[in-house]
């Protein structure tokens, strides 16, 4: 039970330390939990824990939201949250991040 709390708390604390408002911080922290959705399919720490998949999702979203600053910032905050999740998992066990 500690692991999901850690995946939520680290992006939350780091973004709040930079002075971001609570709504954006909550969004990024909740998105940081998304890679663990693969637990429902019993394939934990597989494709959803990959920086390649993160890039394949983030880059098109950035292209689509390039002219809308508020949406683009949400895409970047979500990517930050997932990146923190992946980095934290590297310290726990074998995680194929590529």
Class inferred from helices and paired strands? mainly alpha
Indicate the overall shape.
globular
Question: Low-confidence spans: pLDDT under 50, at least 5 residues?
Answer: none
Mean pLDDT: 88
Radius of gyration equals 13 Å
Instruction: Count all strands and give the number.
Output: 0
Per DSSP, what share of the residues sits in E-state strands of 2 or more residues?
Answer: under 5%
| Helix and strand sequence | HHHH
Q: Helical percent range? A: 55-70%
In summary, what is this structure?
With 98 residues, this protein is mainly alpha-helical. The protein contains 4 helices and no strands.
How is this structure best described in words?
The structure is a single chain. The protein has 98 residues and is an all-alpha fold. It has one domain. The protein has four helices and no strands. Helix 1 (2-17) packs antiparallel against helix 2 (22-31), helix 1 crosses helix 4 and helix 2 (22-31) packs across helix 4 (69-90). The two termini are 26 Å apart. The mean pLDDT is 88.
Question: What would the keywords be for this entry?
Answer:
mainly alpha; 0% strand; 98 residues; 63% helix; 4 helices; globular
Task: List the SSEs and their pairings.
Layout: H1 2-17, H2 22-31, H3 51-64, H4 69-90
């Amino acid at each position: 039970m500690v692991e999901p709390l850690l995946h939520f708390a680290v992006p939350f604390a780091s973004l709040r330390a930079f002075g971001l408002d609570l709504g954006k911080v909550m969004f990024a922290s909740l998105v940081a939990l998304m890679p663990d959705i693969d637990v429902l399919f019993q394939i934990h720490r597989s494709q959803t824990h990959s920086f390649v998949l993160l890039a394949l999702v983030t880059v098109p979203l950035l292209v689509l939201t390039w002219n809308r600053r508020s949406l683009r910032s949400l895409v970047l905050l979500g990517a930050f949250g997932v990146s923190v999740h992946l980095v934290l998992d590297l310290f726990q066990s074998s995680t194929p991040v590529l």
